[in-house]
């Protein structure tokens, strides 16, 4: 499992809903078919852009089943299985494995924020890694969770053979460098946003899982490819060009903005699930 290589560009795909708020499984499958024709290395299902916190347990399972049927075998299928308790996370991870996911990505538990220190993180992830049938990716998203995995904790966790990498969305490139320097060479460090994709790759990240890859998959992959080929000026220029679009579908407008952009580009975006709302005309 430790040999799993997660190089390239990945999209954390949105979960489509119909006008009544129900999951639109037909639209999900149609979108996946389109993404699968791009240069993306794989898809993350039930990540932050998938509004995973707004889906109940049964909905999550059904979304994973639809995704497994639509994602071709040559694309990696990463399932978001993070819950606030270790027991619930393990249960969902086991279900994802049975459905056919290739790896599980697990966001930091965060409800009891003040207690979610390094010791709690090590307890959670190590217990999960010992029992999980899937290789585990750590997921650090402090802007949403209020919990920020330290480089020291990540490096310690990286020693476990079933913890194969991290998606870090903090934007702290210095921390990424610390992790890359100290973790085993087989540990996959992935940029969690296109805003710092090129700098992360230069430091030694193997790829990125980025909201922007949903609407600009080829551009995101090109940043990766240019960097691998040593075409650094082209990679740098494309990185700079992508910053405004990336900001619009992340920090500025978030999931509603990403879904509207998908509608514009011929995918199905549709409405977000309440309490998120669609953008107004000015936005």
Annotate the secondary structure layout.
Layout lengths: L7 E5 L12 H11 L6 E4 L11 H14 L5 E5 L5 H14 L3 E5 L10 H14 L4 E5 L1 H4 L5 H7 L5 E6 L4 H10 L5 E4 L5 H7 L3 E3 L7 H12 L3 H21 L1 H11 L19
Parallel strand pairs: 1-2, 1-8, 2-3, 3-4, 4-5, 5-6, 6-7, 7-8
Helix pairs in contact: 1-2, 2-3, 3-4, 6-7, 8-9, 9-10, 10-11
Task: Give a quick set of tags describing it.
283 residues, alpha/beta, 8-stranded parallel β-barrel, 11 helices, globular
Question: What is the gist of this entry?
Answer:
By secondary structure, this protein is an alpha/beta fold. The protein has helices at 25-35, 57-70, 86-99, 118-131, 142-145, 151-157, 173-182, 197-203, 217-228, 232-252, 254-264; strands at residues 8-12, 42-45, 76-80, 103-107, 136-140, 163-168, 188-191, 207-209.
Written account of the structure:
With 283 residues, the chain is of the alpha/beta class. 44% of the residues lie in helices and 13% in strands. The chain contains eleven helices and eight strands. It has helices at residues 25-35, 57-70, 86-99, 118-131, 142-145, 151-157, 173-182, 197-203, 217-228, 232-252, 254-264; strands spanning 8-12, 42-45, 76-80, 103-107, 136-140, 163-168, 188-191, 207-209. It has an eight-stranded parallel barrel, surrounded by six helices. α3 (86-99) packs parallel to α4 (118-131). The longest helix is centred in the C-terminal third of the chain and has 21 residues, at 232-252. The N and C termini lie far apart (44 Å). The model has no long low-confidence stretch (mean pLDDT 97).
